[in-house]
Amino acid sequence: MTSIEKIHSLDMFGSRPGLDRIKRLLDLLGNPQDDLKFVHVAGTNGKGSTCALISSVLTQAGYKTGLFISPYIVDFRERIQINGKMISEQVLDEAVEKTFPIVEKLRAEDCIITEFEYVMALEFMIHKNEKCDVVVLETGMGGLLDCTNVIKPPLCSVITRIGLDHTAVLGDTIEEITRQKCGIIKTGSPAVISAQKAAAMKVIEADCAEKGVRFIKSKKLHMYVKEETLEHTLLEYNGMELELPFIGKHQIENAKAALAAVGILKGFFNISDCAVKEGFKNAVNPGRMELLSDSPITIIDGAHNPDGIEALKDAVEKYNTKESAVLVIGMLADKDVASSIETLEGDFDVVYTVPVQNPRSLSAEKLAEICIPCFKEVRVFNDVKTALESAQKEALENDSLLVIAGSLYLAGEVRPLIKK
């Protein structure tokens, strides 16, 4: 088996919250996480963008910066990056060759390591071996029992926007989910908190008070929005003009969270205004409100929960200068599909429903049934490539905006087709 095949072979064991298994694995690997410095980021929406911005600023400041994100869009190695570039195949192969026998040994002892746990251990080991100065670490799911939470207190923790997602595991109320996210907030480590719903903020403030943690509300940062287009967002902060290559008003809040975190990190690293400007300008976060083509104008977005879909709706209504809009959508069955579709009602003239390359995919037919009451025309396609070609042709003929959304897995499948 190749390294990737070995990693994905662990997918059959699913996702199981808890830290006992990852701690046992890391003990056998010499606890590489203890030799690294971290910025730890949790939240429902905005984690990827916030991580990308912080990582890019640290890289531009001259520090060897590790980045761990999930999921990946096209190539698995996107999950483990150094200075904005995914690790080489050789680095991954060497790490897997050294560690996979330990995973098999634990399995024989009835300690079943999941795929995410193994990838997390690989990240710790690789970033330690590559002598990273700092690692920007995105949680997988939740926070308290997420296996990224084996680290010691980070340089700072960041909680981005919290909404309803993964409710079967994290709880079905904002308060329950927020308590899980707060698990990454640790005594002795300052925290940055993005703008939140009142219920979430109340839980966070109580948690910080209990732990004696100093926290910054990023919404209090004074920022002026100079320009918003499909290409970028121009911001002014402390007399400094920042070009944000992400679009949508939700990204402004993510930018504030990143800047608040950078403010804390200036206590540990030498970060100039130039590094902040270049870091923002060069940040990359594929598959999130990403403009991929101008003929037809095509946006791809991994929005897959009500808050993410709401942000997509706002962006489409704000930036679409065309007379009509076409949507290609595929979603996982365990997401809040009905609420997401209802949110988009009236914003698209034609909707193409497609399956997602994932065992949890909602079928194109069932998705169409949910879409039919909300849109004028709904077309079912069981092949994503064919659906995309048809949607592109229709968007060109009618001079329409084309949007692909509903899942990062769908974004990963479609993005290479459009980039070609």
Write the layout of secondary structure elements.
Elements: H1 3-8, H2 20-28, E1 38-42, H3 47-60, E2 65-68, E3 80-82, E4 85-86, H4 89-108, H5 115-129, E5 134-138, E6 156-159, H6 167-170, H7 174-181, E7 191-193, H8 198-211, E8 215-217, E9 223-228, E10 233-237, E11 240-244, H9 249-265, H10 273-282, E12 290-294, E13 297-301, H11 306-319, E14 325-329, H12 337-343, E15 350-353, H13 364-371, E16 377-380, H14 384-398, E17 401-405, H15 408-419
Parallel strand pairs: 1-5, 1-6, 2-5, 6-7, 7-8, 13-17, 14-15, 14-17, 15-16
Antiparallel strand pairs: 2-3, 3-4, 9-10, 10-11, 12-13
Key traits:
globular, six-stranded mixed sheet, alpha/beta, eight-stranded mixed sheet, 15 helices, 17% strand, 420 residues, 41% helix, single chain
% residues in beta strands: 15-25%
Distance N to C terminus: 29 Å
Low-confidence stretches: none
The computed structural class is: alpha/beta
Counting H and I runs of at least 4 residues, what is the number of helices?
15
Percent of residues in helices comes to 40-55%
Largest sheet: 8 strands, mixed
Order of strands in the sheet with most strands: 4-3-2-5-1-6-7-8
Overall mean pLDDT stands at 91
